[in-house]
């Protein structure tokens, strides 16, 4: 089997929903969280929610995807439970007005992303496949909520700092003069309240690309070594939607994960085997999908078995530029993923606007962390809590 070199995590982040280079350069603004509100019951345990509102984003003109105002913010999940193991089970992101009193159309949502420091997360979850750069959740236009299937969650200690990256866009209002915020909510349960041990999840992902220059269409593979039956048809030729958002490989090929989609129908295939970073056979239990307006579907295919792993549909507005809804994937049993199989994602856009639009096709996949037991996570959480207590004393 031909494999490309290890895919750089930094490029994975750049090409996913944090594509904007300016994002990393933004100063982090402290924000206040509304902590620990009990909102219901989850698997027989009390369900809690922490709510955070981003700084104000001013919208004063048309902003395409990844070009609107953006902020980085820092907060803590629940300081009162700083040494207690929690399990994150849901995430929600909506657009509200400047004072947070009214919801606004999700047309202004570019993306909302939550992450923590990679080192802190690896100390708690020593998986072979930790979340890239500590990323925990990302939502974009068309999907406002993540809720994991029963029994699954992301391990977390409240002492681990959280970073909120929020960005807005505006496809439709040319003379805009709006102040908006992101309101995000994180749902969690306390480990001590659970009647059954939680099954830990970790995050991986993949994204579609277009070939900008070169003779092939499979990142990291010599065009002369491509086997279409093994590697799939590969990316089609395209144009980057933003200057500088191109990556190259050692074979002289250049690709972009944010491209121009012309009027009409477009189907694009991208081999994503190395993007997935699979270190062992596992199962997929949740997937959030990032598409742009005019996307109609996204498939993940197992090229080795010639089977569809999953398919989701997207629905765009007919009277404006907006992705009204995109489906997600959720499974208690899990969808099998195999370390030694080849995978591709297939995106379909139907651009009925009559003019060029921009496109992305990204999958945020929550897979079972099979190489780390819940008992090991609990042991590590207790050890970290002891160190924190000694440091305070």
Structure in words:
The chain has 393 residues and is mainly beta. It folds into two domains: 20-200, Sandwich (Jelly Rolls); 204-368, Jelly Rolls (Sandwich), CATH 2.60.120. Helices cover 11% and strands 45% of the residues. The protein has six helices and 26 strands. It has helices at 9-15, 22-25, 118-124, 228-231, 273-276, 374-392, and strands spanning 28-30, 33-42, 45-53, 57-59, 70-75, 86-97, 109-116, 135-140, 145-147, 152-156, 162-168, 178-190, 199-207, 210-213, 247-248, 254-256, 259-261, 264-271, 282-291, 295-302, 307-316, 323-326, 329-337, 343-351, 357-359, 361-368. The strands form five sheets. Strands 2, 3, 4, 6, 9, 10, 12, 13, 19, 23 and 26 form an eleven-stranded mixed β-sheet that branches. β21 and β22 (323-326) form a beta hairpin. It is globular, with a radius of gyration of 21 Å. The N and C termini lie far apart (55 Å). The model is unreliable at 1-25 (pLDDT under 50).
Please compute the radius of gyration using only Cα atoms. Answer: 21 Å
Largest sheet: 11 strands, mixed
Count of extended strands? 26
**How much of the polypeptide forms β-strand, as a percent range?**
35-45%
Tell me, briefly, the overall form: globular
Number of helices: 6
Give the overall pLDDT as a whole number: 90
Distance between the termini: 55 Å
CATH architecture of the largest domain: Sandwich
CATH top level class name of the largest domain: Mainly Beta
- Estimate percent helicity: 10-25%
Secondary-structure-derived class: mainly beta
Q: How many separate domains?
A: 2
Residue stretches low in confidence (pLDDT < 50, at least 5 long) are 1-25
């Amino acid at each position: 089997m031909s494999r490309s070199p290890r895919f750089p995590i930094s490029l994975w982040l750049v090409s996913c929903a944090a594509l904007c280079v300016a994002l990393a350069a933004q100063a982090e603004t402290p924000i206040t969280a509304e902590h620990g509100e009990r909102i219901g019951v989850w698997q027989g345990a009390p369900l809690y929610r922490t709510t955070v509102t981003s700084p104000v984003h001013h919208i004063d003109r048309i902003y395409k995807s990844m070009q609107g105002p953006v902020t980085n913010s820092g907060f803590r999940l629940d300081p009162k439970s700083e040494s207690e193991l929690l399990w994150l089970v849901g995430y929600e992101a909506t657009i509200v007005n400047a004072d947070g009193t009214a919801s606004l159309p999700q047309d202004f949502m570019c993306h909302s992303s939550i992450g923590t420091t990679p080192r802190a997360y690896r100390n708690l979850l020593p998986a072979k496949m930790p979340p890239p750069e500590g990323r925990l959740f990302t939502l974009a236009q068309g999907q406002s909520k993540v809720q994991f299937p029963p029994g699954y969650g992301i391990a977390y200690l409240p002492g681990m700092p959280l970073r909120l990256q929020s960005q807005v866009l505006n496809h439709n209002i040319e003379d805009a003069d709006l102040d908006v915020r992101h309101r995000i909510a994180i749902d969690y349960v306390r480990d001590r309240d659970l009647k059954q041990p939680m099954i830990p999840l970790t995050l991986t992902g993949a994204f579609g690309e277009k070939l900008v220059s070169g003779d092939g269409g499979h990142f990291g593979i010599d065009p002369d070594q491509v086997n279409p039956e093994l590697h799939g048809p590969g990316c089609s030729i395209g144009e980057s939607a933003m200057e500088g958002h191109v990556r190259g490989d050692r074979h002289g090929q250049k690709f972009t994960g944010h491209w121009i989609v012309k009027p009409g129908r477009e189907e694009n295939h991208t081999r994503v085997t190395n993007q997935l970073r699979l270190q062992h056979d596992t199962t997929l239990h949740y997937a959030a999908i990032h598409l742009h307006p005019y996307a109609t579907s996204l498939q993940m295919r197992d090229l080795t078995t010639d089977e569809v792993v999953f398919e989701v549909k997207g629905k765009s507005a007919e009277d404006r530029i907006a992705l009204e809804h995109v489906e997600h994937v959720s499974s208690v049993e899990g969808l099998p993923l195999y370390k030694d199989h080849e995978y591709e994602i297939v995106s379909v856009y139907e651009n009925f606007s009559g003019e060029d639009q921009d496109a992305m096709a990204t999958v945020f996949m929550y897979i079972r962390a099979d190489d780390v037991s819940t008992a090991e996570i609990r042991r590590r959480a207790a050890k970290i809590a002891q160190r924190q207590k000694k440091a305070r004393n």
